[in-house]
């Protein structure tokens, strides 16, 4: 479990069970499963968000750098590093992990819930 992102080469070493993620840009327009365009201003209920893991602490066991994780955007602490916004959280605050390395497990969805 590396503490440096291969994408950004962040000069950060995460401690304990902390996970640093870069949130997907999901604030714009999106499409429903039927192809209907939903504007960014449309009101939605409580919604979880996906993000990419860019650094992990040495006590993190379930995720690795490069994994995509699902989390509650209301329970987050934001930090800016070198002009890029990141979200800092504990591993226990993650709801799911999506990674190619999980495809060979018994779960057929590729998600660890």
UniProtKB/TrEMBL annotation:
Function: Together with the chaperonin GroEL, plays an essential role in assisting protein folding. The GroEL-GroES system forms a nano-cage that allows encapsulation of the non-native substrate proteins and provides a physical environment optimized to promote and accelerate protein folding. GroES binds to the apical surface of the GroEL ring, thereby capping the opening of the GroEL channel.
Keyword entries, A-Z: Chaperone
Protein's UniProt keywords contain Coiled coil: no
Single GO MF annotation: protein-folding chaperone binding
Subunit structure of this chain's protein: Heptamer of 7 subunits arranged in a ring.
Record family assignment: Belongs to the GroES chaperonin family.
Protein's name in the database: 10 kDa chaperonin
Species, as recorded: Actinacidiphila guanduensis
């Amino acid at each position: 479990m590396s503490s440096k992102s291969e994408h950004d080469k962040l000069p950060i070493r995460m401690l304990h069970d902390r996970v640093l993620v870069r949130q997907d840009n999901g604030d714009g327009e999106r499409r429903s499963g039927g192809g209907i365009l939903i504007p960014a201003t449309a009101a939605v209920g409580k919604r979880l968000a996906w993000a990419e893991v860019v650094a992990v602490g040495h006590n993190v066991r379930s995720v690795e750098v490069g994994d995509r994780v699902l989390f509650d955007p209301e329970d987050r602490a934001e930090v800016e590093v070198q002009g890029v916004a990141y979200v800092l959280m504990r591993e226990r605050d993650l709801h799911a992990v999506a990674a190619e390395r999980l495809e060979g497990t018994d779960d057929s969805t590729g998600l660890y819930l």
